[in-house]
């Protein structure tokens, strides 16, 4: 069993759902884009949040939403490889 498969099993487990107020699964690339990652996390817990490109404002809003709450965050690099298709050797 691979790391992503294990993470998916944990992420989708009913007991885990009861244990956390919020969950987010975010695809990340080798070139870390903090603004995009933060925006994606915020959108996953608050779909109505306005689009922002200011990292500080995004972090403040995310802090407001998550302060005092339990949350599960999965940063997954493998989903991007799956979208690109099989790698030819």
From TrEMBL:
Organism the protein comes from: Gossypium mustelinum (Cotton)
Gene3D superfamilies noted in UniProt: P-loop containing nucleotide triphosphate hydrolases
UniProt name for this protein: NB-ARC domain-containing protein
PANTHER family listed in its UniProt record: DISEASE RESISTANCE RPP13-LIKE PROTEIN 1, PLANT BROAD-SPECTRUM MILDEW RESISTANCE PROTEIN RPW8
A GO BP entry: defense response
Organism phylogeny: Eukaryota, Viridiplantae, Streptophyta, Embryophyta, Tracheophyta
Sequence ranges assigned to domain NB-ARC in this UniProt record: 1-76
Domain of life: Eukaryota
A GO molecular-function descriptor: ADP binding
Pfam families recorded: NB-ARC
Keywords: Plant defense
Record's keyword annotation contains Cytoplasm: no
């Amino acid at each position: 069993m691979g790391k992503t498969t294990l993470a998916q099993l944990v992420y989708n487990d009913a007991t885990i759902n009861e244990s956390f107020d919020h969950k987010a699964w975010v695809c990340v690339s080798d070139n870390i884009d903090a603004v995009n990652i933060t925006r994606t996390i915020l959108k996953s817990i608050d779909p109505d949040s306005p689009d922002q490109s200011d990292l500080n404002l995004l972090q403040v809003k995310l802090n407001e939403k998550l302060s005092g709450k339990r949350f599960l965050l999965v940063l997954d690099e493998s989903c991007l490889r799956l979208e690109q298709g099989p790698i030819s050797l």
